[in-house]
Design brief:
Helix 5 crosses helix 12, helix 6 packs across helix 9 and helix 6 crosses helix 10. The chain is an alpha/beta fold. The structure holds iron/sulfur cluster and zinc ion (ZN).
């Protein structure tokens, strides 16, 4: 069996699963997967049992949830969260489980994943809530390409996703929110944070994170002891619907470089990832937590979205506000618009369209919702127009675009939000013209 998987930012994984002798557990079937750190070779059935029972053990050992609780699962459509949702359902058949998917509006990516997640949840009969960022909040992750975060898209995306997944969990009264962080993600992130001296960041990677404020779910990581490659085996062997293309914003980050470095070490020390996890969990985090109580008292609700935050406005809301400023700046700089953009603007109800053609330039063509003030006369109307300076956008039109452009600049200099309607409008407006 051949496995192909597009990993965001670091190309594709290509694997071949072939018979490698008898299964060490059932001693009946052909083994196809070698688990080096456990010194086992497993067939498909025994691998599934091994995978699912480890998740069960981790949930029980860390008291992630009990049988009466409502569990929300953050599903992205990637191998980890897909494996998580499926295995949780297999391990806890009667548990009240919900799935959430955020459509981030990433072109050629988010819609593709949405279909996969819908199919997975239908197959598993798990209720799914889809949160469409564009529809609900008016922006997409792609929009951040115009901001100072253009080189840190994953960081801004992660902040937004964490906020929304938590918010959705609160809405359904979930007791716990499960995410697909696997062993490789956890130890490489811990190492990276350690190198930056960010001990608070490391603490957040614990298997269970208590809510910072009452009424919020605890965050749990049932895959924290599952190596990344085993998630890929699990989704492939069980033919689960999973992402087939990688996100266009995937970057080669320090964490990914550390991941590759630990993978190299693993070749000679098969249990290195488990050892690192244990050192961070049992030795480093406890030392830091001893001095933590004071800091926890600083947590408050964000004044915009009410999410727990250590400042007045949470990091997600800060970024969204910044994005709005950027969009506004772009809008402010833009002087010429086309007919399609005019149609969008007209939906807003605060647009005055002025056709500045003189009577002898007028033809049968008329701009929708426009008033006609020939350019020579417009000065007389400035006084009236001033009333709308703060509240309205002014769009100007003439046949060649030249006179209206000059007037647009003039109105801009007077502080108006003025736009010139580019030529080419006639062909768009009247296809037979
Ligand atoms: Fe993942 Fe980064 Fe793409 Fe967000 S932007 S979906 S974090 S790869
Ligand atoms: Zn907020």
């Amino acid at each position: 069996m051949e496995i192909f998987y597009g990993k965001c930012g670091i190309g594709r994984i290509k694997l071949k699963l072939e018979p490698i002798g008898k299964c060490s557990r059932c001693r009946k079937n052909s083994a196809i997967i070698e688990i080096r750190y456990a010194k086992q070779k497993l067939c498909q059935g025994c691998f599934n049992d091994f995978f699912i029972s480890r998740i069960k053990r981790v949930v029980e050992e860390f008291k992630m949830f009990n049988k009466d609780e409502r569990i929300a699962v953050a599903v992205s459509g990637g191998k980890d969260s897909v494996a998580l949702l499926h295995a949780l359902k297999m391990a806890f058949k009667d548990q009240n489980i919900f799935a959430f998917y955020i459509n981030l509006g990433i072109k050629y990516y988010s819609d593709h994943l949405e279909k996969k997640v819908i199919k997975l949840c239908e197959d598993l009969k798990i209720p799914l809530e889809i949160y469409n960022l564009k529809e609900k909040e008016g922006y997409t992750i792609d929009d951040f390409l115009i901001t100072k975060y253009k080189d840190k898209m994953c960081s801004v995306c992660g902040t937004i996703k964490r906020n929304i997944f938590t918010l959705l969990s609160v809405k359904v009264n979930a007791n716990a929110l499960a995410t697909g962080h696997n062993l490789d993600d956890t130890v490489s992130t811990m190492m990276s944070l350690f190198l930056n001296g960010d001990l608070e960041g490391i603490r957040k990677l614990k298997p269970v994170l208590k809510p910072l404020l009452n009424g919020y779910p605890r965050k749990i990581k049932p895959l924290i002891t599952t190596p990344e490659i085993e998630d890929l085996y699990y989704v492939s062997l069980n033919e689960l619907p999973v992402q087939e293309c990688s996100c266009p914003h995937g970057e080669i980050t320090t964490i990914k470089q550390i991941k590759n470095w630990i993978d190299e070490l693993e070749k000679t020390q098969p249990d290195i990832k488990f050892r690192l996890l244990s050192i961070f969990r049992k030795k480093i985090i406890p030392i830091y937590e001893k001095n933590l109580n004071e800091e926890l008292e600083d947590i408050k609700a964000c004044s915009i979205c009410s999410m727990p935050s250590n400042s007045e406005i949470c990091s997600k809301c800060k970024r969204v506000l910044e994005l709005k400023e950027y969009k506004q700046k772009l809008e402010d700089l833009k002087i010429e618009i086309d007919y399609k953009e005019l149609q969008e603007m007209l939906k807003e109800n605060n647009v005055i369209v002025i056709d500045v053609r003189s009577p002898d330039e007028m033809n049968e063509f008329k701009i929708e919702n426009s008033i006609n003030i020939p350019s020579e006369e417009i000065e007389k109307h400035f006084k009236n127009l001033l009333k709308f300076k703060k509240t309205h956008k002014i769009v100007l039109y003439c046949n060649s675009g030249r006179k209206s452009y000059a007037l647009t600049i003039r109105l801009r200099n007077m502080g108006f939000k003025a736009y010139n309607l580019k030529d080419g409008v006639l062909e768009l407006y009247l296809p037979s013209y």
